Amino acid sequence: MLCIVGPTACGKTKLAVNVAEKLDGEILSADSRQVYRDMTIGTGKDLGDYHINGKTIPAHLIDIANAGEQYNVFLYQQDFYRVYDNVLQRGKLPVCCGGSGMYVEAILKAYRLDYVPENKNFRLELEQKSHEELVAMLSEMKVLHNVSDTKDRQRLVRAIEIACHSPQDMNNYATYNFDYQIFYINADREQLRKKIAARLKERFGQGMIEEVQNLINRGLTMEQLKYYGLEYKFIAQYLNHELSLDDMKEKLCIAIGQFAKRQQTWFNRMKKQGFDMIEIDMDMSLAEKTDVVISQWQQFCHTCLDK
Predict the structure, then answer these.
(1) Domain span at 213
(2) Which of 223, 219, 213 is nearest to 70 (CA)?
(3) What is the Cα–Cα distance from 236 to 215, expressed in whole angstroms?
(4) Distance between CA 76 and CA 80 in Å, rounded?
(5) Mapping DSSP to helix (H, G, I), strand (E, B) and coil, where does residue 193 land?
(6) Is 79 exposed, middle or buried (0-12, 13-18, 19+ CB in 10 A)?
(7) Is the dihedral of CA 245, 249, 250, 255 positive or negative?
(8) Average pLDDT, integer, range 67-86
(9) Mean pLDDT, the chain, as a whole number?
(10) Those residues with Cβ within 8 angstroms of residue 16's Cβ, 6 or more apart along the chain or in another chain
(11) Domain co-membership, 49 together with 79
C-alpha cells in the first residue's frame, strides 16, 4: 500500500489522485470527518479532484456514515481492512490518503481494538462528578497526550468509559500485515497558514455556512455540531448568535492553523517511533511531487520483490 499523509491544506488529495491515475490505484481516505454524508464543504472532500484526464479515480471510506453519528477509529479500522482487501482482489493499488494520524497509525500498526458499548448506568454515575473530577479520573487511567478528550464533557465521559472497559486495547496488535511506503508532505507553517486562509475564503464562497444551516434544519443539535469541531463548531456558534461573522471567521482560521500544527506533531511523533516517511516539500509542483512518489514507489516495489 502507498500512503500519502500530511496536514490539512497541503495538497494530499491532488497528489494521491495523480499517483493513483498513473499506477492504476484507488484512494482509501484516512480522514475522520470525511466519512460523514452531507458534510462536504466543511470537511474538504474536494470531490472534483478525483476527476482526472477524463476519468474518475474511485475513492473509498467517504460518505459512509450519517451526519449526527459518532464514527470512531474502531469502525474505521474494520471498514478500512474490508475495502483494502477488495481493492487488492480487483488488482488495483490501494493509495491511502489523509491527515487523521490516529486513523493512519491504527491501520498501519494494526491495533487490536474492541468495540466498547455505551454503559448507561456508568454514565449516570459519571454525570454526578464535576468536570475537574472527570479529568483527574481519566488522567489516572491513561497518559493524556493531548487535551481533545478533556475539553468536551461528552468526549471526556466516553474516554473514561472506554478506558474502564479495556485499558490495554491500544497496546495489543492484530495480525494484519502488509508492506507499505509513506510519503509525508512537509509544509512550512507560515506557507500553510496562507493556504488555509485562502482555502477557507474559497469555501465560504462555496456555501459552507449554508451547509451547516442545512444540518441544523435536519435536526442536528449544537452539541453534535460542536463535536465535529472546526468549521462545524464555529459556524454553529455564529448561527446561534454566539459569535459575529468576522469573529467566527477569525477564530476558525486560527483554530484550523492550530489543528494543522497538531497534525504535523502527530506525524513527527510517528517518525520518531520508527515509521519510515519520505518527505515531500509542499511547495514543489504537482508534477514534481508525482514524479518523486512514483520513482520512490517503484524502488520500494523492487525491494519488496527481492525479499
Answers:
(1) 2-114+166-306
(2) 223
(3) 10
(4) 6
(5) helix
(6) middle
(7) positive
(8) 91
(9) 89
(10) 4, 27, 95, 97
(11) yes
**Amino acid type, 87:** V
Residues 156 and 252 in one domain: no
Distance (Å, rounded) from C-alpha 113 to C-alpha 37? 25
Q: What angle do CA 18, 21, 24 make, to 5 degrees?
A: 140
Q: Is the distance from CB of 140 to CB of 164 less than 8 angstroms?
A: no
Q: Out of 13-17, 89-93, 220-224, 279-283, which region has the weakest mean confidence (pLDDT)?
A: 220-224
Give the C-alpha separation, 141 to 159, whole Å. 10
Query: For residue 64, how many C-alpha atoms fall within 13 Å in the half-sphere facing its CB?
Result: 20
The count of domains in the chain is 2
Q: How far apart, in whole angstroms, are the C-alpha atoms of residue 231 and residue 252?
A: 7
Q: What is the pLDDT confidence band of residue 136, given thresholds at 50, 70 and 90?
A: confident
Closest CA to 260 of 193, 183, 191: 193
Q: What is the DSSP secondary structure assignment for residue 146, as one 8-state letter?
A: S
How many CB atoms lie under 10 A from the CB of residue 132? 9
Task: Determine phi and psi for 288, rounding to 5 degrees.
Answer: -65, -45
Which pLDDT score is estimated for 168? 45
Residue 235 pLDDT class (50, 70, 90 cuts): very high
**Cα–Cα distance for residue pair 180/191, rounded to 1 Å:** 29
pTM score > 0.85 for this model? no
E-strand spans in 16-62?
Answer: 25-29, 51-52, 55-56, 59-60
Assess whether 75 and 27 both reside in one domain: yes
The pLDDT of residue 115 is: 62
Mean pLDDT of 178-200: 95
Question: Is 139's pLDDT higher than 70?
Answer: yes
